[in-house]
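cron nightly-structures :: item 1 of 1
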Amino acid sequence: MGEAEDVLTICTSLGYAKVICAADTTVKELIGMAMRTVSLMSSSQLYGLQTPRDDHNLNSFRHILCRNLTWAEIKKLYHPTELTLAICLYPTKFEEAARNDRSTLFYLHQQAKEIYHAHFKDITDVAMAFEIGCLDIRSFASTSDPCTKDLLDVLDKGRGLNSFFPPCVLQAYKSKALRRAVQHYLVKVQHYSEEDCALDMLNRYLILLKFDRDVVRCSFGAGHGFPVELVIGPRFQVSIMLENAAEPRTVAYFASIKKVMVSRTVSSDGVRYQVRLAIEQSSDPNAPLEIMTFSFQSQEAADTVVHLLEGYCGEAIGATVHDNGCDMGTVSEPRSHRGSRENFLPNGCPYRLKETNNSEIQKLEISRDSVLLEQVLGEGQFGDVYKGIYRKDVSYTFDCFRTAMRNGDHMG
C-alpha cells in the first residue's frame, strides 16, 4: 500500500468503519480493513463494497464495486462520500451458514432486517409479520427462559411493543389482544437461542422479500437481443424475467458455466458490454458448449454480473480456506486460484479487460458453416426450432437450432 491519502467511511451493519486509503489501495484491501475494524474475521469472499442503494425498491440495481479497482479510480469514477459493506454472495441454506460462520449469519440477518424495516409499510402478510416481530422480541431477552410479562414490561418502557410490528399487524390487532398474542407466542419460543431467532427470521424475510437475488436490466441474445431482467442468486441461479412474466425463467445453472467472456463494443447506440457464458449442456467432454449472450449499457452493471457469476460458480468460494487462515486484504491469491480465475475469466472483467483477438470466443462458437438445417420441429419461445446436423471433423451429432442461425450468425 502506498502513502496514506484519505480517510474513507464504510457503513456496516455493525457500525461505521474509518479506513485510511492510499491511491493504490484496492477494493479487496478496503473490504479486509473494514471487516477487521468491526471484528468480522472470516468469509471475506462473501462480502463486497457497494454504492448507496435504494432499499425501498428490491428490484433496483445493486452496484457492487469491482475488487480490482483502486481508491484513485473509485474517486475519479464515483466521488463517494461513503461506501457500504454488504454480503454480496448469499448462502443457499442459512442453517449450513450458521454452522460454518456464526458472525456472517448475524451480519446477514441484520442486513435483511434493515431491508425489511425499509419496507415496513408495504408488508401485507399479517401472520408472517407477527411471527417476525415476536422472534425479534425474543432475541432481546438475555436468558433462555424469559418471563414474558417482565420482558414486555421492559419493552413498554423502552422502544415500545408496537415498534416491532408493521402497520398491517397493528391494524389487525387491538392493543390488549396484540399483547396477549405476543405473550402466547413467546411461550412457544422461550427456549430459542439468539441463533435460532436469527435463522427463523431470515427464512421469513426470504419468503416476504426474496432478498437473495440481484436483478440487472440487460438485453438477452446475440446482436441487439431483447430486453429482460437478469436474475442471479442461489435459488434462481441464472434466470431471466420477461415482460409481464409472473416468475423468473431459469436459463443456466452455476455448475454448468465453464467460462465467462467479456467484450466491449462501440456502435451508433454507444458503448455496450457483452458478457457471454460458455455453458456445458452435456456430460460428453467433446460436446460443444452453448454460448449465451447478455448485453449491458453500463460498465458497472456488466462488472457486477461478471463477479457475481465468478463467486457463485465457485471461483471465489474456493478461496475460503485461505481467507480463514490469512490476514484478509493483504495476502496475494494462491497460484492455483489465480490460474482457475484466469481460465474462468479469460478476457478479464469490464474494468480490467484483456486485449484479445476474440480467439477464446471463436474457439467456443459453432461456425454457421458447420451446421446444416434440415426441417422445422416447431415454434419455441424465441422463434422456430430446427432439426439440424452439426459437423465437427468427421463426426455428426443431431441438435436443435434457433431461427437466428438462418442469418449466418454464430450461436449466442
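cron nightly-structures :: done
The chain has four domains: 4-88, 96-209, 214-364, 366-412.
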